Amino acid sequence: MKLRELGEFPFLRRLQERLPSDSRVLLGVGDDCAALTLPGMTVITTDAMIEGVHFRREWTSSVTLGEKAFAINASDIAAMGGEPTFALLSLGVPQETEVEDLEAFFDGFLRAAREYGTALIGGNMSAAPCLMISVTLLGQTRHGVITRSGAKVGDEVYVTGTLGDAALGLRMSQEGRTDAFAEHVKARFLCPTVRFSVSQELAMHRLVHAMIDVSDGLLQDLGHLCAASQVGVLIDAPALPLSTAYRALLGENLWDTALGGGEDYELLFCAAAESREAIAHLAQTSGCMITRIGRIVPQSDGLSVRGPDGVPLRLTHSGFDHFRQG
Amino acid sequence: MKLRELGEFPFLRRLQERLPSDSRVLLGVGDDCAALTLPGMTVITTDAMIEGVHFRREWTSSVTLGEKAFAINASDIAAMGGEPTFALLSLGVPQETEVEDLEAFFDGFLRAAREYGTALIGGNMSAAPCLMISVTLLGQTRHGVITRSGAKVGDEVYVTGTLGDAALGLRMSQEGRTDAFAEHVKARFLCPTVRFSVSQELAMHRLVHAMIDVSDGLLQDLGHLCAASQVGVLIDAPALPLSTAYRALLGENLWDTALGGGEDYELLFCAAAESREAIAHLAQTSGCMITRIGRIVPQSDGLSVRGPDGVPLRLTHSGFDHFRQG
Questions:
Q1: pLDDT band for position A320 (cuts 50, 70, 90)
Q2: Which CATH number fits domain A3-140: 3.40.190.290, 3.40.50.300, 3.30.1330.10, 1.20.1250.20?
Q3: Cβ contacts of B93 on chain A, cutoff 8 Å
Q4: Listed residue (A160, A170, A154) closest to A221, CA to CA
């Protein structure tokens, strides 16, 4: 059945009946506003996914799309050292959308939300020329807020997981590649892993001076962090963590995509040299790879990347900007 | 200059520099999340405007579009008896958009926000095939939360302002009419007045059992309120408040548009008969027309509208649903 046959309100009523009750919420979906009390420090973020810009329906299942819509916002909460609590969902939906697909999208979103103890408390749905998903996510920080602006000269720079897989996954989706390596990076593009346990441990043990998630590409996001902290950075390209699939798929220009490609949603953070051992221990206990990739330098030294011979790399791609090409 | 020439991040930096600092906000625009403490009861809502669905750029200035994006969300906060406090803005923007137009949009949004003591604390911007504006607005309620679900049999039903102007204004925009009456209703469509002072007074004096804002049309929104309150309603069509322009523009089918047309963003509320005098007094002191249009009846009596002769009207339009035609 198409959404225009069922109608907006019958769809929303069906959805509402499926939402679990949540004692933290005085008033959830179904009134003009949600109402709730938010003790302590609240962190809040909003991010959108737009059909034809961030995804194509033929590349992803509706369930995975819902999971990703939650994950990209949850990653911003994790980058502050927070835990997600409440979500609002603003949807633009083409009238010809199948009700089944929209329900599958909600299944994915709600499954991901539930996994992290997050309740859907509000939203809206309207007609649109393409599928547009805008999420607002609230979170709480129990161990203080980790910002972008606390990096200090001499700090070491770390990143979780591997870099460049998502951007390469996008390319493999565009090229229709289906071999095992391509499938590995496509999965990384279609639904990122949010690094919550690492984020929580880093926050709890106060190991971090500054943190950001890598959504626009390593260099772009490093640039944001350095500008906010008024520092420079020196990155060691051979240290960048690359997956086996990434290495196999990319022969030449090995680092370009890892440096510039967006949507990895890994955590990028700066910590004092004395924290090196504690961070190595955390990587072991969390089961999440954490790699030291460079160090913070004075702002006057700018942002630079060193190749295997110690010579500065000439950068061909500085990260993703929605509105600037090349 | 077009946005693709300036780029996303330079635009956002320029915008950020214009935002006033706000002592309530620990961390505003410019990190992964905003961070703040939210004492008391928080109300929160999200609503979207999509080019080609909710507006066309040739009908409205960018400033007015920004004001309306704030107003339609603020109206939801008012409908809970709340005051807006913090806003997040998620934008999808075509690459060919003029930077000047986007700045004018922000001017309008920020002007409206400032008028109601609201700070823009976060957002995101991405490329999109058409302009898409999704706002999340937080508010606080100092006098308790007014829901849709408290209407009681015997309550009287009131509405602020006049009904049907916005829907008629949309029609006048579509038809390109420019006479004085048409301009009056077009202005009501292009930027609604949020009924804050009435909402605050009603909340403070606890005059209201249930409230909703009229965004999808009187009957549709009455239907939501009655369903939530498990009551029915009897509306007296000749009592509906209609503007002079509305009466002049519509000869026949005088009530259809007032009953079914969306986007008036007036407050619709239910109060005990004993509050009649206090509400009449409030209308006088606030300078906002408040009209008694019907009464709450048992749920088994359903939702009905009586014409001038006391005979039930046959309804041709029951309100706006984005996905159902006719």
A1: low
A2: 3.30.1330.10
A3: 323
A4: A160
Q: Which residue of A has its CA nearest to B321?
A: A8
Q: Taking all residues of chain B, what is their mean pLDDT, rounded to a whole number? A: 94
CB of B238 closer than 8 Å to CB of B307: yes
Mean pLDDT of chain A: 94
Dump pLDDT digits (tens) for A202-241: 999 999 999 999 999 999 999 999 999 999 999 999 999 9
- Find the closest chain A residue to B148 by CA distance: A31
Q: How far is the CA of B284 from the CAs of A206, B214, B243, B246, B288, in angstroms?
A: 58, 22, 18, 23, 7
Q: How confident is the model at residue B319 (pLDDT cuts 50, 70, 90)?
A: low
Binned at pLDDT 50, 70 and 90, residue B326 comes out as very low
User: Minimal Cα–Cα distance from B218 to chain A, Å?
Assistant: 15
Interchain CB distance below 8 Å, A322 and B126 = yes
> Which tokens sit at B174?
């579509």
Return the CATH fold of A156-306: Phosphoribosyl-aminoimidazole Synthetase; Chain A, domain 2 (3.90.650)
Which of B4, B12, B322, B325 to probe the A interface (max A CBs under 10 A)? Answer: B322
Per-residue pLDDT tens for A263-292?
Answer: 999 999 999 999 999 999 999 999 999 999
A313 pLDDT band, cuts 50/70/90, is confident
Domain locations along chain A: 3-140, 156-306
| Cβ B18 vs Cβ A22: under 8 Å | no
Return the closest-CA partner of residue B275 out of B225, B181, B213, B210: B210
Provide the shortest C-alpha distance from residue A136 to chain B (in Å): 7
Nearest CA to CA, how far is A247 from chain B (Å)? 30
Distance (Å) from the alpha carbon of B324 to chain A's nearest alpha carbon: 5
Annotate B295-320 with DSSP letters as a single string: EEEEGGG-EEEE-TTSPBPPPS----
Residue-level pLDDT at A318: 57
Tell if the CB–CB gap between A33 and B82 is shorter than 8 Å.
yes
Q: How far apart are CA A197 and CA B200, in angstroms?
A: 44
Q: Which chain A residues are within 8 Å of B45, Cβ to Cβ?
A: 32-34, 88, 122
The reply to whether residue A42 touches residue B30, judged by beta carbons under 8 angstroms, is no
- Helix and strand numbers (H, E) in chain A are 11, 11
What percentage of chain A carries pLDDT values higher than 70? 96
Query: What was the ipTM of the complex prediction?
Result: 0.93
Please give the Cα distance from A225 to A223 (Å, whole number): 5
